[in-house]
Amino acid sequence: MIPTGVLPAIRNMKDFEKALQSNHDILLVLESRLSQLKSIVSYAKRENKDIYLHFDLIQGLKPDEFGMEFLIREVKPAGILSTRGNVIKLAKKNKLVAIQRMFLLDSIALEHNIKLIKRTEPDCVEVLPGLIPSMINKVHDETGLPVIAGGLVNAESEVDAAMEAGAVAVSTSNDELWDF
């Protein structure tokens, strides 16, 4: 399922507990340790929530086919976020929702990421920082994929601007925006 609306982006267990009590169906886990993953996904499933894991930020897991195999067989997340093309391809191959994260540092980074997205064919793209509405539109026009705005989004007006620019969702670790 392609995420829409405001997406809680969880950095620690305190945020996880709060997000479990929210009305959101999808939770993005940004930072975690390998030893925590099964219980995180298990707790979330009991609350009828899907977990999307940021593969690159899982401490103790190598971003290769064996790491993905472990996640699929043992952890069973609903989706994966990554900046790495090989991880996105593995997620797609294993029928997980694959969200390609792209950092827009400059025009060269934009070009490079567009080429990567066309090769990996993710389900969705997350643009960071999410405060650049014109880039949300450009990435969508270039790739034809749904775009999530993320990174540095800290105000309701920024959520509105991203959504008005065409973002299907906005990820934020600012829990004050989770119910916006």
From TrEMBL:
Keyword annotations for this protein? Glycerol metabolism, RNA-binding, Transcription, Transcription regulation
GO MF, one example: RNA binding
Pfam families (alphabetical): G3P_antiterm
Record bears the keyword Transferase: no
InterPro entries for the chain: Aldolase_TIM, GlpP
The biological processes this protein is annotated with in GO are: glycerol metabolic process; positive regulation of DNA-templated transcription
Per the record, the domain of life is: Bacteria
The UniProt entry, under SUPFAM superfamilies, shows: GlpP-like
What task does this protein carry out? Answer: Regulates expression of the glpD operon. In the presence of glycerol 3-phosphate (G3P) causes antitermination of transcription of glpD at the inverted repeat of the leader region to enhance its transcription. Binds and stabilizes glpD leader mRNA.
- The protein's name in its UniProt record: Glycerol uptake operon antiterminator regulatory protein
